[in-house]
Amino acid sequence: MTAELVRGQNHPLPQTRLEIRVTAGAPVLACVTLADAAGTVPGTEWIAHPGSPTLPGVEVSRQAAAGLRYHVDLEAVPERAHLVHVLFALPEGVGGPERFGSTAAPFAAVTSTDGTEIASFTLTALDAESAVVALELYRRQGAWKVRAVGQGYAGGLAELFGDQGLPEARAFAATIQDAVARHLANAVQAPLPGSPDGTRVRPEAPAPEPVTAPAPPGPVPHQQPVPPTGADGAVNYTHPGRRTSTPPTPPPPAAPPTAPGQPPRPVAGDATGWSMDERLYNQVWGMFEDLARAVAAYRSAIDFAESRMEQELDRVLSDPRNRIGRAGDTAREAARAKHDELAARAREVLDRDLAQLAAETEVVEPALPAAYAGWDNPVWHAYRVPMEIPMALRLGDVHLPERPDLRIPMLVRLPLERGLWVDSGRLSSEGAMMMDEDQLRRLAMDTAVIHAGRLLAVYPPGEFTVHVIDPAGSGAAALAPLTSSGVLDGPPAAGAAGVAAVLTKLTQRVDLVQMAVRGGAAESLPPDLDTAEQLLIVNDFPHGFDDRAVTQLRYLADEGPSVGVHLLMVADREDADAYGPVLDPLWRSLLRITPIPDSHLADPWVGHAWTYEPPTVPPGSRVVAQALEQVAAARRAWRR
């Protein structure tokens, strides 16, 4: 259970490998200082910052962003360091906010490497401060703890470093700010009125937390727009999720040589992480973030070009003498020519950045493990039932209209933090309205089975159990891959009695596990209790559900994910209209996905409407059936 800290409160850390996530209302730069037992930072070599992002056991982002991630391995922190201070500051001289009082309250969360949140802290009551020590990790009797600090400094990094005893703190702080300002200046993509060269700086956007993104890859299921660029104008891939130094293990992939003056060739796994799977996950999220920023910069530039043209035309036409005649025509042509020039320049930059991302996608996609890979990826031909649970799962792809063929995998963390809802309604999108109702429902159920098949395929034997509720048996054909392979513990539940039996069993399991966890008595659970993650597929909701069953389903949606019970619903919301607003919390608690492409997901940076592409299996392929057959065989062997 997450500890919500207040200023001065501490909390024990159950593990030493951590990720610290900071979200703020404006781009901030990340720093970490190591201090001795007296709280003194002896020198600049004890500070990780954007210009030098790594220390033993610590890694920070190279760039400012409204969402930051700090990677910490406390076992690797030097013995002389007794305190690890996690701090961040507003960049200076880039046109952003000058004090935290003019932005939303920052938020910091300490998580384990699998995404489980350990402690969180909202930094309230900040006003004139522009730098702040958010958290302090410290040794106490051989163990590590985290303390919520929230100490702000109106004098910025210089005052903060000075307070920690750093010699020449002001000069060192200026060096950091200059480096960050130069990096942000290189990120300029769209012009800004009033600047001498017609350019405007756009702030960095907050980092994601995937469609669980969407998360997002949830979608990606919702601030900053521009991908940073280097001196040659190519996309700079050193963003918060990318690797800034060599991780402990395994060794990083070597980048192939590039011709002078050319952008570096992309490399699969070029991101931070303790394993290749984690690096690939972070790299995919980085690609998602870069695409969002690049398109945001392009759209902003186009908006500016149109606004500038309108302003110039208004200025010319405000003089009645210019409304007709050659002078007015010349002014109109000049305004449109400038607009076309700015739009063409913006498109050129966008195409260059998208080409870099497309090249990276071509390298990354074949390297993805089965949990992240599409069903057409050759990795499935060599599939073997895994022995460990992966970091994340692919729910499909997302793309933007500027380049529909550039698709980013939509990854969500495992175990699932939210249930899934495959929307079978015809009123949900224009594409759905063009389809036959029965065809759409069958397609929705096929999509649900594909998702369930992937979940079964990426979990070790005995670690994932699937239940099915199909009250009228209408999903029998779509469920055939699950029922025929033997991966289900029992046949799909039908009729009111079957619905009641499954829901009662799962709600009792949630109650038992919650009581055991809260009471610290996990060993007292009944020996016959299935401790595996549970997935409940529900078809044609609310058919076959009485009021009690609906209440139980809502309970599972709210309380189930925290104890390993997840929903995968195939439903048309219009069918449940009779319940009115009673079911609104149910729909909100689920991640909505669709059986056909639909633009209903938003990224966590700038809120683009992303088109979600559901997963598909190549025509005639038996890849899903073959994977499920291996899962069933592994389950039988595990039970012996």
Q: How does this structure look, described?
A:
The chain is an alpha+beta fold. It has 11 helices and 21 strands. Strands 1, 2, 3, 4, 5, 6, 7, 8, 9, 10, 11 and 12 form a 12-stranded mixed sheet that branches. Strands 16-17-18-15-19 form a 5-stranded parallel sheet, with helices on both faces. α9 links the parallel β17 and β18. α3 runs antiparallel to α4, α6 crosses α11 (623-639) and α8 packs parallel to α9. It is globular and about 75 Å long.
Explain briefly what this protein structure is.
By secondary structure, the protein is an alpha+beta fold.
List the keywords.
11 helices; five-stranded parallel β-sheet; twelve-stranded mixed β-sheet; alpha+beta; 640 residues
